[in-house]
Amino acid sequence: MDGHGVQPGNAGVGGIGGNAEGKYRALAYDTAVSTLLAVALYVVVKVSLDGFRQWRARISVLIVGSGPVGLTAALVAVRSGKVLKLTVLDERYRSALLCRPQQIALDPRSVKFLLGLGVDFDNMEGCWNNGHFFTRIGVFQEYLLSILEQKKQRVEVKVQLGTKFSEEYLRRIPHSSWPRVIVVADGSCGDSCSVLGISSDYSVESCHAYGANATIERLDQRQVPTPEIRAHSLYFDLSAYGVEALREHRNPTAKSGFHLKIYGTFRNRYMALVCPSSDTKMVRFLRHTSNSSIMRNIFYQSFNAYKTDIEPRLNDVTLHHMQCSRRLFEIQLSHRRISAAYIEGDNAAVIVEGEAARVLNFDTGFGVNLGMRGLESVGTFIYRAATAVDQNDILEALSAKMQHSRQVAETFKHTGLSESMYE
Ligand SMILES: Cc1cc2nc3c(=O)[nH]c(=O)nc-3n(C[C@H](O)[C@H](O)[C@H](O)COP(=O)(O)OP(=O)(O)OC[C@H]3O[C@@H](n4cnc5c(N)ncnc54)[C@H](O)[C@@H]3O)c2cc1C
């Protein structure tokens, strides 16, 4: 009985303990669930708020220089969806900007990049050859300006031609209206970086090749876009100058001989002659000769041998239309050591693009493409600058941009000449 008497008692005590434990368990469970819910809610709200903030984030961008690179950068900016106000300036007036006679050759990678930005090549005067699109620089700029005009409904686009970027220009911008991003694309002669206090130190690096350029200006010829002509493995008979050994020391790994490219319109014809660096007698002779008529003769004969059938030959009378390098020179790529910077007081990020960032001392007819390579990271940069939470985010974005810029120069040094000249 006792046992029975105790049992219920025990059972009673055991029941009360079990209940309390159950309650604690339930309480702990409830607390865990509500904490989890609160954390989940916090995460959802934070992610949504961040997403909303990122989605809403819009900045003001200033582009200095309306060359092909500056205008393409402007297109990247309006397409990024992160720009509220875009100002594009150039010190040249519209007529001077658009009458530039040089032809540009957009290679397949640049064509793909531009197609991604909505460029419609069917609506631009030019011609196709081997995946490249050839047009005049002014035609290209005019086309880009017209697209920017169409984007005015979605983004406040202001194109200020005939306006020089200078200290005075900067002083006139009210502090509250300073752009968050400045893209400097003022070409190889621009000095906008120094206006912004950015060092003009360049790294000059050899492309391990020698080259020479020639230009022929014939005002009586047509200005229509023309595909380029290439010739490879060229050797020149310099026996008249005492250089006999024409095919000495052929390097089986390098593409031997000279590579020639004739490009531009019939009115502004350009020639680029290049060979991988070597120490053959011919190269040494052409590097050091003081007789400028030798190089002139090489270009003269090369042009007449490889020009298209429909354009006139150069002859003794028309030869004075041609200007050329006096001798072979080492091809070098100069690129800015500082191609991205942060202006702390004004909270502005600056990036440098196109020939303002990197330039060759040799015209390959590839210049615009090199500029386009740099622009491939501008969309991401603008996105990161617009959605940056703090200065750290901006600095990281600038650092990534600068790294990409260095990589563009590095890649050109290794494969640029083979892409643009040797193949
Ligand atoms: C003779 C010649 C032939 C060429 N042929 C070819 C070719 O066949 N294929 C090819 O791909 N490339 C060719 N190029 C190269 C091509 O023209 C350049 O690569 C290209 O123009 C560079 O573009 P960019 O926008 O960087 O600079 P730019 O075209 O030089 O544009 C810079 C702009 O910035 C403006 N600017 C400068 N300072 C200021 C300032 N302070 N304020 C406001 N605006 C300013 C200038 O007025 C200019 O309009 C050739 C170049 C030359 C000279």
From TrEMBL:
Source organism superkingdom: Eukaryota
Keywords (A to Z) from UniProt: Membrane, Transmembrane, Transmembrane helix
Transmembrane residue ranges: 26-45, 57-78
Protein name: FAD-binding domain-containing protein
